[in-house]
Amino acid sequence: MRKPKHVSSRKPYRTCWLSIRHTWIVSLLAVIAVAPQVAAVDYSETLAAYDAGRYEESRDAAAEQVERGIWSERWPTLLIRCHLTLGEYESAMAEFDNALKRYPSSIALRWLGMDVLRRNGDEDRAAENEIRLINLLGQVTSRYVSRENLVAAGEFLESKNEDARKVLQLFYDRVLDRDPDFLPAHLATAKLALSKGDYQVAQETLQNAQKLAPASAEIDGLLARAWKTTNPEKSSAFLQAALEKNERHAPTLLQLAGRAIDSEDYAAAQDLIDRVLAVDDKHAEAYALSAVLAHLRGDYAGEKEQRERALATWKNNPHVDHVIGMWLSRKYRFREGAEYQRSALTMQPDLLPAQFQLAEDTLRLGHDKVGWQLAEEFTQADPYNVVAYNLMQLRDEMSGYRTLREGDLTLRMDAREASLFGDAALQLMREAAELFCERYEVDELGPVTAEIFRNQDDFAIRTFGLPGGAGYLGVCFGPVITMNSPSSQGPRPSNWQSVLWHEFAHAVTLRKTRNRMPRWLSEGISVYEERLRDPTWGQSMGIGYRQMIVDGGLTPISELSAAFLAPPSPMHLDFAYYQASLVVEFLVDQHGWETLRAILVDLGDGIGINDAITRQAGNVDRLNAEFMDHAKSLANQYAATLSFEPLDESIEVNKLALKETLELLESFPHHYRLLPRLAGLQMRQNDFIAAIQTLQTLRDAGLLTDEDGGTFAMLAQCYLETEQMDAYWKALRRWSDSSSNATDATLKLMQRALEESDPETATELGERYLAVNPLDPRAHRVIAWAAKERSQPTQALHSLRCLQVLDEPDKAGLMFQIAQAEFDAGLADAAKRSVLKTLEMAPRYRDAHRLLIQLVGKSKTDPTTTPEQAFKPEVASEVE
């Protein structure tokens, strides 16, 4: 993955009303009233004990009230919940049977009983109870329906995939209209929104619920889910709050276990799972996550054992395989994940989460036809799922994309952009495939598809399911690569070639390891491969990275993947990529490519990363210590002639005046922060000679920054102001050579190449510029001119046709240049058509008439005005 709100194109629940499939819902809603609350002296305290994780205390108190015969189904309901939470499934069954005798018409009790019966493995009776529940709903026509029963009815209908909007309006909203403070209705609404991917509605609903029950760990846990996509830090804070309120809260512990799995801290994940099992030693989801951990360790016998434990009490529980498969897919094991989803769907064919996960897995495996069909079927079954709706909208958008193929390589992108750089992208993919397959000894890569999106939200929807994803440039799932086009990145796009190269390296290494590699190694290899391909690609040592290393910011190798999960800042995430690439570089330098390949083979065989490193390169802790010394040595060597002594925290360098800066430099000579400030102040006072001396000190130390407005740009400006033109052009060239994104410097150098009639340099710089922004006509004009100068009409034709796509204003002049290039390339028929089009647009175009005469064979005389004479000034003036 390469990096540098819930926003939906529709409301999550449509205003149109869809038909309800069961007429008994209508009869249920014929007369709805809200039953009065039954007072209970200590019910709220008992419920608070349950919410705080004192389940045994709550169970005992509820049991006492049930034994006393208090007439309120809340007590047996709470007692059943306590038994289920504590893994006392048989006791829950006994209490359900007793309560059912007393409250046979309770919808809420029968709905809870579905869970009780299934956890006890009595699926026949669960099916019978469901039929009775449906009959009960149909019989309720004239009596009042309590709030609890109305919410339970809505939850039951949700489970049967009934219309989500009607469930929301006719059940949960109806209760809240009568009693805005009824917490279960708020929670049911939030859970419904979460299931549809509508995180904004979930957030708003849960914020209201939190006001009613500020001590609820359940609400905090749901808020953590609602904010995870758009605000990970806020989500983590809610998880911490939930744990503080109830350290035994299983959903929170399992969320934390999932995050530990994401960060590849599998020991921590198992500890959290064990805490859940300490409360309920039959917890199906906890065992499902244990099965995931066993799989990730390569312990497939253990995976099978943990799955069997998860299914011990309910052998056809589809959620077990769905959870296992979902987490395997999160770890890029899409094939294995898809198999688990198929298994879940054999147990429950209408399990919507499994259906959608299978559709996503299939798409990420590159099986587009089947994947889109599955996604469409899911959308028809669940029309209110925001993620699925967005995905289907994207499919319609992508139907207009152009597809380019060469062997097993497929490129899919916007048709207009494909005309501009589609061929170059496919050629780069071919080059990457040949190089990486040879380097990593991959005999058969298989099909690889790259999809380039002109819209950031389209990229995010294809990649993450929702709009957003700002900061990510590309993602690789193995056989499928998704990435942003330069047109989606604003005025300063990143180098699209380096992004595609990075992601293709993922495709090969993921294939080599069968998607079994830690994130840090995968990213580290890809960034390292960028630097090998072009030193200006990838990441390199700079002031920020140097300081992080010197200040102890290196992450142990065994924990490196965690550095990608929740970095404190974008800078920390960038540094995680850089450190990972340094580790890979260190491995290759110290142990050779064969060792890195052997580690990848071990990973593919299911061996954990630390064991694989130990097997092939020695003890991982020793390797980590050696790497730390190596990285610190690199950091200390960087700009070694400068001072990095800490300044007083009260000093605001960017506010210092010239005199203050000079005085501080007497105490801190050659300070890395003070010298750039001094140069900037000297330039403000037009003392460019002094600024040059200051900036040359930074240059000689190797500390020139390549961003626009950085010290490279400052030095070039100083040379220009002092009319030191040779030095100016050298500074621009060094700037352009040092950064693949130095587009301003590259443009100026292109102009100079034109002025000096240097087509070789113009071509080099033009291609460098197009690697960043292929949608800018200026570079295409330069390359077209240079190709004409070098007698390369085919290359000129490509650039000229790109200018057609970019709506070049002088259409007649452009068409004539195309005709001339076709003529030079020996394409006489095409040249005739083009020159006639030229004359249609400009009937008095003399050069076009002369070319037409040549084409019809009436004259062999060259035009008196050559195309390059007409063309070159236009290019030069546009670059200016």
How would you describe the overall organization of this protein?
This protein has 880 residues and is mostly helical. 66% of the residues lie in helices and 3% in strands. It has 45 helices and five strands. The chain has a five-stranded mixed sheet with strand order 1-2-3-5-4.
Strand order of the largest sheet: 1-2-3-5-4
Low-confidence parts: 4-41, 858-871, 873-880
Tally the beta strands.
5
Distance between the termini: 37 Å
- How would you characterize the largest beta sheet? 5 strands, mixed
**Total DSSP helices:** 45
What is the average of the pLDDT values? 89
Shape summary: globular
Whole-angstrom Rg: 33 Å
Proportion of residues in helical segments: 55-70%
Structure classification: mainly alpha
β-strand amount: under 5%
Relevant terms:
880 residues; mainly alpha; 45 helices; 5 strands; disordered C terminus
Topology:
Layout: H1 24-28, H2 43-51, H3 55-68, H4 74-85, H5 89-102, H6 107-119, H7 123-139, H8 147-159, H9 164-178, H10 183-195, H11 199-212, H12 217-227, H13 232-245, H14 250-262, H15 266-279, H16 284-296, H17 300-310, H18 318-330, H19 334-347, H20 352-364, H21 368-381, H22 386-398, E1 401-406, E2 409-414, H23 415-439, E3 448-453, H24 456-464, E4 474-476, E5 480-484, H25 496-513, H26 519-533, H27 543-550, H28 562-565, H29 570-591, H30 593-604, H31 609-617, H32 620-637, H33 658-667, H34 674-684, H35 688-700, H36 711-721, H37 725-738, H38 743-755, H39 759-770, H40 777-789, H41 793-805, H42 811-824, H43 828-841, H44 846-855, H45 867-879
Parallel strand pairs: 2-3, 3-5
Antiparallel strand pairs: 1-2, 4-5
Helix pairs in contact: 2-3, 3-4, 4-5, 5-6, 6-7, 6-8, 8-9, 8-10, 9-10, 10-11, 10-12, 11-12, 12-13, 14-15, 14-16, 15-16, 16-17, 16-18, 18-19, 18-20, 19-20, 20-21, 21-22, 23-25, 25-26, 26-29, 27-32, 29-30, 30-31, 33-34, 34-35, 35-36, 36-37, 37-38, 38-39, 38-40, 38-45, 39-40, 40-41, 40-45, ...
